[in-house]
Design a protein that fits this description.
Two copies of one chain form a homodimer.
Chain A: E1 2-6, H1 10-21, E2 25-30, H2 34-44, E3 47-49, E4 61-64, H3 71-76, E5 84-87, E6 104-110, E7 127-131, H4 134-145, E8 151-153, H5 156-186, H6 195-207, H7 217-220, H8 223-232, H9 237-253
Parallel strand pairs in A: 1-2, 1-4, 2-3, 4-5, 5-6, 7-8
Antiparallel strand pairs in A: 6-7
């Protein structure tokens, strides 16, 4: 399978690498910044381009891994292609492709968090797929299966819901980790001490629902401890606000 | 080593079980509700009591695992003991013991989240210890070492900071998991789909600082996606508030 990867960021790096490992050939990496394309292309033994007119017309798959608001512009320049065109965005409908002159298209949304310098086992990535026809879906399903077994057929509406849920479960969660790291750093305590707790908190909800394993002062309605915590946070009103907002939400859940 | 465990909740269950596994004898479980003491005592082959006057005076260790605001009352009734008295609370200073007639005392605070029906490998629990004297500290260190290698000497001020950081990294994080589970449930989507993302988000910060691996629309300042998300949340004003509060905090961090 010959793949052109459009984009060179976190998602592009991880998905293109995963396809390469599965045996596909990454024939081109396109980026509007050639140096970025070159950086990824050199790893994947691929050609780096920054001009969409130079796109290989004979690839089997065109994988668009770029900012949401740039998808339509880039896709509109992908003409005379027989290969399958996919975007990888959680928040973008498949209809972004519908008025373009594409032969077949769809979406492969990896429900995972990617960083360039961290490899993820592709078999642990849930792949949410959607296609313009049953025929394309069959093709897409077999392409996704090269990466891993966690394949879900998800329409554009549900994909947006998953993306929203992922913001809470991943992006906001990581920010809470950061707040805790900052609190420790300001007090010359080592973030390493919190790592087993972070691991266990995530491990618990693999086999139980989050609401079954909620712990802490808010669910116990332990007002004394919460007041002490707010006292410790008083020099950072923003953290007071986050603490109060989340504690109130926890209390409300278990009323 | 003979241990009396005061309390029968999540912390008591996990710590007493871990000590038992390490070879200690749990001679008594006290709870103000006898049935609760009996439930744990039957598992640990221990005596259940609900009267503090019946406490075994010859134990080596008295482990207080009860609500923070009940510690002083229970501890004040522990008289004529030669054994070491420890509480396990993050938010409570060691000075809660200082005006009582205890021979030696201290704190062993397990920086972990516990649920009764989930066993944790004790070797992965950071144990924060504090003692009333160097002599007691030496004794406490050797007791803690029976459970695992992650032993930190932490004073009462720093312990409260760790407890606060743990609320963000664990209790609030679990609540975000729950919000994401609720969002999926309302839309008939399976929480299982988010589990690999939750695992990876926690795994990332084991080897990188959270601020190095933050992803999502807020850090990209992707206003379009954030507006779409707020639109999806509009029937739940409380979630709109949490979304806006945390997004604003992320944006501010990376300005």
């Amino acid at each position: 399978m010959k793949i052109v990867c459009l984009g060179s960021g976190n998602v592009a790096t991880n998905l293109a690498s995963a396809f390469k490992t599965s045996g596909a050939e990454i024939v081109q990496i396109w980026s509007k910044t050639l140096a970025n394309a070159q950086a990824l292309a050199s790893v994947l033994k691929s050609q780096a381009i920054d001009n969409l007119n130079e796109i290989d017309k004979d690839a089997d798959l065109y994988l668009i891994c770029i900012k949401d608001d740039a998808i339509i512009e880039v896709a509109s320049k992908l003409t005379e292609l027989k290969g399958l065109v996919l975007h990888t965005s959680g928040a973008t409908g498949m209809d972004v492709f519908s008025n373009l002159s594409l032969t077949n298209y769809g979406v492969i949304y990896p429900l995972q968090t990617f960083s360039k310098n961290r490899k993820i086992d592709p078999s642990t990535i849930p792949l949410c797929i959607e296609a313009d026809s049953e025929e394309t879906l069959t093709k897409l399903r077999s392409i996704a299966a090269k990466l891993g077994p966690l394949i879900y057929q998800v329409n554009s509406v549900d994909r947006k819901i998953l993306h929203l849920a992922a913001v809470f479960a991943c992006n906001f969660t990581n920010h809470l980790y950061q707040i805790s790291a900052d609190i420790l750093e300001r007090n010359h305590l080592d973030f390493d001490m919190l790592k087993p707790l972070i691991t266990e908190t995530a491990a618990k909800v693999q086999s139980a629902l989050p609401k079954e394993v909620q712990t802490g002062p808010a669910i116990r309605n332990d007002e004394l401890t919460m007041r002490k915590h707010l006292q410790l946070l008083k020099s950072t009103p923003e953290l007071v606000n986050i603490y109060e907002t989340l504690s109130k939400s926890i209390k409300k859940t278990y009323l």
